[in-house]
Design brief:
Distance between the termini: 72 Å
Shape: globular
Largest sheet: 12 strands, antiparallel
Oligomer: single chain
Length: 192
């Protein structure tokens, strides 16, 4: 019994102090970062105007990076790097996030959320006004040219998620962000 305890303590000490690269997380590459590139200003306020002269004002934050580690006998050990772009829809906008269960607080969303782990797992999720793409559905995004992509609601994982009025499709430019979208009523919105 003493041998098992001694071996367990040695293994635990080794795994705690092992500084090798076995839990190194690969950097985000340019392909990953193209979804984050347009959002480099803090509180970047963007106004969209509909064909009916309605307004949406969205405030995008700078990309926020964080990291975490998992040390678990059940799932193993790994390190994880995250990057997100939070955004909010202002009061008075036509589109709004839905109220949460308390009836007072509105849901929040991240335009893009990505993580990479040291065990070679990565995930990207893009959500704009309740239209969510992740996993295999990201492969259905239409590349219109080198910098412009069409996200079609028909190809999304979900539409209308945690919003009062959702959208169908949106166009993303790798230099400017979302430049236009079409809502459920088939009304077109353009960035002002």
């Amino acid at each position: 019994m003493k041998n098992i305890t001694y071996i367990s303590i040695l293994f635990l000490c080794y795994s705690c102090f092992d500084k090798s690269d076995k839990y190194k997380v690969e950097d985000f590459n340019q392909e990953n970062l193209k979804w984050f590139k347009p959002f480099q200003k803090e509180n970047d306020t963007i106004i969209y105007v509909s064909e009916r002269m309605e307004y949406d004002t969205l405030i995008f934050q700078k990309p926020q990076a964080d990291s975490d580690s998992i040390r678990s006998m059940e799932v193993g050990n790994s390190n994880i790097n995250y990057i997100i772009i939070p955004y909010d829809i202002t009061i008075g906008s036509y589109h709004r996030f839905a109220l949460s269960g308390d009836g007072k607080t509105r849901y929040t969303q991240n335009f893009a959320k990505m993580f990479k782990s040291s065990n070679n797992y990565e995930n990207l999720e893009i959500t704009f006004i309740g239209t969510l793409f992740n996993g295999e559905n990201l492969q259905k995004i239409k590349k219109l040219n080198d910098s412009i992509y069409l996200f079609r609601g028909l190809d999304a994982n979900y539409t209308g998620m945690n919003v009062e009025e959702g959208i169908n499709d949106f166009i993303f430019n790798t230099s400017k962000g979302v430049t236009e979208y079409t809502d459920y009523r088939k009304v077109k919105w353009k960035r002002k």
